[in-house]
Amino acid sequence: MELDDRKKRVLQAIVDDYVATNEPVGSKSLIERHNFQVSSATLRNDMAELEKLGFIEKPHTSAGRIPSDRGYREYVDSLMKIDTLTAKEQEEIEANISGTVDEAAELIKSATHSLSEATGFVSLSMSPRLRKSFLKQMKILMIEPGKALVVLVLSAGVVKDKVVRIPNYLTDEQMFKLSGAIEKNLTGKPLDEITFVTVETAAKDTEIPSPLLKQVLYEAYTAIKQADQLSIYLEGEHKMLAYPDFSSLGRARDLLGTLSDSGMVAGYVNEMENLATSSGKKDSYMIRIGQEITLEGLDDCSFITATYNMGDTVSGNIGVIGPKRMDYSRVISKMDFVKKKLNEELKKLT
Amino acid sequence: MELDDRKKRVLQAIVDDYVATNEPVGSKSLIERHNFQVSSATLRNDMAELEKLGFIEKPHTSAGRIPSDRGYREYVDSLMKIDTLTAKEQEEIEANISGTVDEAAELIKSATHSLSEATGFVSLSMSPRLRKSFLKQMKILMIEPGKALVVLVLSAGVVKDKVVRIPNYLTDEQMFKLSGAIEKNLTGKPLDEITFVTVETAAKDTEIPSPLLKQVLYEAYTAIKQADQLSIYLEGEHKMLAYPDFSSLGRARDLLGTLSDSGMVAGYVNEMENLATSSGKKDSYMIRIGQEITLEGLDDCSFITATYNMGDTVSGNIGVIGPKRMDYSRVISKMDFVKKKLNEELKKLT
DNA sequence: GATTAGCACTCACCACTTCCGAGTGCCAAC
DNA sequence: GTTGGCACTCGGAAGTGGTGAGTGCTAATC
């Protein structure tokens, strides 16, 4: 069932032409644009074959062929060659990313922005997964009676904080003691190994009456857990409206509706990432095409993600969502470049 | 140029019908739906008059009339009567707002969400304008050599923080002294009266060598200034695609494109707010209709905002953007209710 | 002077038709 | 396996006519 050489070329040509023109491509125009050394009838036979194998399909009887999801899949897996960016393209991307941002979150945002600008598609980034990072510092600051700020400094230089409610009569000094104890005992532990019990044990040798303690500990614990929460940043949703692929209002609405539920998208990205990690297959990028994407309204999209790193144990994702009728090679090389730059800049921060 | 009574009723009826049906309304259907005690010919004369005055217009020669921006303006200014919400509507809104959120930012977000859900339109909120709030606490926490976290506690219970870079050899203790000095001298001052000079003066009596100080002070100062920065939160952009008013892809794209530039929208809201404040005219809500809105692509929208309060001196805005062909009365009463609830909940927080 | 009935006119919209051409499958010949 | 030829398909553009809701205007009436 391996495709012979010419059939591969035909499929590739169909994808290329369709991406470029957004029109079903027929045997004749294929001959005109590419110099196959055979007649259109031969190509017709090849195309019939490709259709039987599920790589291409007809929108209606008397039209040319368009790639199916499977066709795109074959294309990205073994047909396309990734080209390199021109110096100018590289410059544009770099200009957007570097600059004076010196906080990781800002940096990641700017990379996401750059990615959307460079591709013209929706781009996204997931905040770093901090489960594997560990506590470096913990401070509890009294704000006013009954209210305190828990500040966590994690490895990889991430700072998180959260306002929590505490019993009114707890003093500044008690808080200081408490945070010191927790800090001392939990430093170095990965976040995902910290449980309520660990926190409780860590606080044992303070002399604060335990009923009071309980609430604070619980708040401290949730603050730690919340630091681990994933957040997603999406940009450029409206750009999808520019593509004829979504010119039907219904499609556009479904797509943007789904994208507006950022929690759902975040969940999907996370799931994809986990799947890829556990299956051990780790390309530098991941692609989902059309129906492979289980999010509603993304049937005509492709979803490409990559992983960035912050320190040794912490990573997150950046990604692009565009019409599946996209120039994969260019998009991938752009995303790869953004990722590379982002990694470099993140390294500088630590 | 005052409209006589019947003409007012005609205009009102035209707006009501057009909002309900999205179809140009003609003299005959007007007679059918409302019981004017006159013939269609009379209404035709009235309508010709209204058109001459600029309240209504024809999309093309042989069609009915639709309200012009001016017509809507007249309608909201003096024709419509604001109706009250049903118990059920109130409940739905309340359910979304109250709940367990106990941080102001979260609360405001949830109100915004609720507003979008209730109206079916885009909703937005501006973070509180903190210029008028004052410093209650300031702490500088060392994170690691060269890096510190500036934590500001402002009146109205707002907590802001920022990671800043500091000279490597500054110690924890020095930082503590410094923040104490600044805190002591600036507490009670409104944010907009704090300048770099004030900060410098406040730090005078610490014994830290001044060249070192300069950089930290500058960072502290920018941290304070940044706390004052406005941020905007927009929700439900995709919902606009559901309205036939934006069924043309071009319009939809312009609209969503503009809305995606949140800085621009924020600037506009701020400008509107300032204008209203300085002109002294302070309704409980503000409306901009169609061309009155200077943002690109919002010609077919109306933009309604209201002000929420946090403590005595601090306020922000919530708002709705929908098609100008909207049921103003319902939208306004919903927004009013959300605002009321939000104010109540914010009060509870302090 | 305001209101009304009547009438000729306008024009978007819909359904219907026609026509064109790019594309197809298939077959017989090379 | 490749090719030329041919009948067939069908979406889309362009044209057509009828319909109906709407208009403005005029002359008669209250």
Account of the protein in words:
Two copies of one chain form a homodimer. By secondary structure, chain A is of the alpha+beta class. The first copy, chain A, has twelve helices and ten strands. In chain A, the strands form three sheets. In chain A, strands 7-3-10-9-8 form a five-stranded antiparallel sheet, sandwiched between helices. The longest helix of chain A is centred in the last third of the chain and has 22 residues, at 328-349. Chain A is elongated. At the A-B interface, strand 4, strand 5, strand 6 and helix 10 of A face strand 4, strand 5, strand 6 and helix 10 of B. The first copy, chain A, binds a DNA duplex (30 and 30 nucleotides) through helix 2 and helix 3.
What's the quick description here?
2 copies of one chain form a homodimer. Chain A has helices at residues 5-21, 27-33, 40-52, 69-79, 87-97, 104-119, 172-186, 196-202, 210-227, 249-260, 262-278, 328-349, and strands at 56-57, 66-67, 122-126, 135-144, 147-154, 159-165, 232-235, 285-289, 301-310, 314-323.
